Amino acid sequence: MKNKLLDLVIKGARVMDGTGSVGVVRDVGIKGDRIVDIRPGIEDESSEKLDASGLTLAPGFIDVHSHDDFHVLIEPEVRHNILQGITTVIVGNCGFGAAGSEAGKAQMRAINEPSAVLPDWARYAGYLEEVDKTSPVLNVAALVGHHTARRQAMGGVENRPPTEKELNDMLASVEEGMAAGAVGMSTGLVYEPGRYATTEEVIALARVVGRHGGLYVSHMRNEGSGLLDSVRETIHIGDAGGCGVEISHHKVNGEANWGMVVQSLELIEKAIAEGKNVTADQYPYTARSTMLFALVQNGTFSSGEGGAMGKSAPSDVLLASVPGRPEYEGRDLQSFVEEFDLPGEEAANKLLSDISHDILVAAFGMGEGDVRMVMAHSSTMIGTDGLDRGSKPHPRAWGTYPRILGKYVRDEGVISLENAVYKMTHMPATKFAIADRGLVKTGCYADLVLFDPDTVLDSATYENPRVGPVGMPHVIVNGEFAVRDGKHMGSRTGRALRRGQK
């Protein structure tokens, strides 16, 4: 006898539940925003049925390292994320936090469209309420940003310790964010103003995070020759603050430093063996994306080893976003070295002074062997670190997840499909206390992605980065199709997710 209880039945997909288990062919029944039935041969006169034979069904991907804090409000369709199967983003990374203050907006300007008009909101509670009001295509969880708290408390970018009052104001900002439901606090200790903070300052703030059961997430102080000391500092801060630790975009920059991830992974393993909750995330590319100003400030083009962000040659630095001069986007810095007849650092400074301090770049500097080693490690989750700004953004904003599933899983066997799905779903949901997501399980929210493991692949390149993947036809968010047959449906069913909230 047929039931008439379900809104959607997905028929005949190979269900990979997110735990790392091998997929099995099942039907999946959805009612409202929840998964309510998983078994072979569901018979139901539902309003919709989807024949998913030959496709793999997995939990929607959780991007643990997003910079779409403002993008989800300005362009709530968030095409670059939803088309690659991302159903939840964790924003507020690298110390950039979306508190509704002028300091917050000023801090975020560097990685968002500088001319964007934003709504007004108060503090982190207001930001999460704004996400709920906007209802973007996907779900949003937030980290409190150390940069923003520091800049607000100290009245700007200051290279000094905070006064007692300023530190108390920073502590109050973190307390407000955590009480509002933030999943943790992030730092960006290579960027202004976080680079001026001592370890002790960060520990004081981390203790607030620890009391709320949140995480300490860090773009560490050095990803070049000082990588190992930075990993030690990060683990120490989490330990002293009573927090779990997430190392952002685990990598080492500069060819002279390649191979150092063997030792950084050993440090993580040692911390885990001691009972500490330490993990990392990664994007599957050998180029990073950041502000041109930050590369100059950290000595990337100077003589020697390249400073805290490692070494990159001008020919390895591509301009991704140049406010007011889109014709410069896609050119490498070396072309300006030649045009200006100046050394690399001076050419970069001329662009910054003559054009804009808000130039974003993609900069090569990592070793492919290191990328593979970090990816295969049990401590590593996946994040895009995407910045979809300008005409030539780093392709990771559009291609991270299908690139792993196609290139690194199917074509090269760096990790198994089951392990990749786990790293993209249940592992981050558990780490960031995102309740009832990251699993294909009855009672969980129906955030789902369906892809063809034989054809899925990224299409985004450095030359043509704003292109969605192939082989990933369907994405469902909170029970509704966000992508169907590869087309963005225009649905807006995303929500703000608060720590531990069901």
Describe it for me?
The chain has 502 residues and is of the alpha/beta class. The protein folds into three domains: 8-58 and 439-488, Urease, subunit C, domain 1, CATH 2.30.40; 61-286 and 366-431, TIM Barrel, CATH 3.20.20.140; 287-364, 2-Layer Sandwich (Dna Ligase, domain 1), CATH 3.30.1490. The chain is built from 16 helices and 20 strands. The protein has helices spanning 71-74, 79-82, 102-108, 123-134, 146-154, 164-180, 199-211, 227-241, 261-273, 292-297, 333-340, 344-354, 368-376, 396-411, 417-424, 426-431; strands spanning 8-15, 24-31, 34-39, 48-51, 56-59, 61-63, 86-91, 139-145, 184-188, 215-219, 244-247, 278-282, 287-291, 317-321, 360-364, 380-382, 448-451, 474-477, 480-484, 487-488. The strands form three sheets. Strands 1, 2, 3, 4, 5, 17, 18, 19 and 20 form a nine-stranded mixed beta sheet that branches. Strands 6-7-8-9-10-11-12-16 form an eight-stranded parallel beta sheet. Strands 13-15-14 form a three-stranded antiparallel beta sheet. Strand 18 (474-477) and strand 19 form a beta hairpin. The protein is globular. The mean pLDDT is 94.
